[in-house]
Design goal:
By secondary structure, this protein is an alpha+beta fold. It is 20% helix and 28% strand. The structure holds uracil.
Length: 240
Amino acid sequence: MPRMRLDKLLAHLNCGSRKEVQAMIRAGRVQVDGVTERDPAAKVDADAAQVVLDGQAQHYQAQRYYMLNKPAGVITASRDERHDTVLELFPEEMRRGLFAVGRLDKDTEGLLLITDDGALSHALMSPARHVDKVYEAEVEGELVPDAAARFAAGLELKDGTVCRPAQLEAAPDLGENWVRVTLREGKYHQVKRMIAAVGGVVVRLRRVELGGLTLDPALAPGAFRALTAQELTLLTQQGK
Ligand code: URA
């Protein structure tokens, strides 16, 4: 059973920085097994203790799962000599062990799952699992009239690569030149190359869904939050 300091546990649960949660504990906002605990250093059993903050039960997860709204201009890597990385959007003390599930291009924005759960990452990225990924793209140029049918049939890219059937639809709710693309695989620059094969150029791209997980519209570019228990269940079901 992992016994750990109460302030460390609450910070780990994303309730605030270590300093912030210490203040919450001292203010009497935290109960452990029904009793108010004002000592940030109190040791609790992270698996078994019922920890409540401001009336909300907090649950310890041995592994960490975050939804990040990736901004354009950072690369999907843990560390890089020349570029800012998605992991650098997390405070340094949180980074250890975390990595991104899959990859978005430097100029692509949107939903990126950041975790330390290698098994889930592997399951979600496995080509055999067919996990849906939904992208919104702003496109320049005139697409061929049968573009959606060619996506649905399994499009052949300019280099001869054949894609799995995918969905392409106009997205007038986003703007005049926007489309929505749903893929079940993740080849290199896939959306850009598929759109190029039907006559367009992607000028802006963001991912909004991954395996049933939807990008939280309240997350500004560069912001992240822990997945809810419900979101995690959704994802793990996809990974099976
Ligand atoms: N397809 C692309 O072309 N780029 C991405 O970043 C993701 C999917």
